[in-house]
């Protein structure tokens, strides 16, 4: 949606091959992949024992057993891996589109140079 909005403000339409990538990129950006990852790791206290349990040994043991039973560390790692894969996929698609666009521009420049050379040759001959 963000890219479509920017393109519409410029008065242009998205190229057809960009639409699926823009949808995926917008979805990833709207979900804010990296901030969610940091939220899970840093602010959720899922990876460390909260201060509340330090003074209460029996509750701390219960908390640790509950975390082990629910496999919290493994689940957080799985979520982080999935978020990392989404981020890498988005970067890959962005670089692919950038390379494709660059190649198209290079060919346009080559064709324009060839046309200019033909005009110069025609000027010399006639």
TrEMBL record:
GO terms for biological process: positive regulation of mitochondrial translation. GO terms for cellular component: mitochondrion. Residues 37-80 form the DUF155 domain. InterPro entries: DUF155, RMD1/Sad1-interacting. It holds the Pfam family DUF155. Belongs to the RMD1/sif2 family. PANTHER family: REQUIRED FOR MEIOTIC NUCLEAR DIVISION PROTEIN 1 HOMOLOG. This is DUF155 domain-containing protein.
